[in-house]
Amino acid sequence: MAEAGTRHPGRNEPCHCGSGKKYKHCCLAKDEEAERAERAEHALQASAAQPAPPPEDEPAPRPTPPARPPVQPWKRTGQNARGARRITTPRKAG
Known about the structure:
Layout: H1 23-26, H2 28-49
């Protein structure tokens, strides 16, 4: 999050360092890395400031059973939707 007085140039604007290059080819990666490090530092300080909650005496979660395939009585092996046997003879060619 940018501070109130700081303005970052757009990706295609000239770089703020005065190199004459576009910002995205010059200082964008360095600025993003600095912001990323700053956010990580703030997150680390925030997590250190809040003590971890005491562990509760909860039973271990039970493992979930494997998923069963849905029951579809209209899909029987060897029969079509109307219950008649499927024809397995090859089609005529030509």
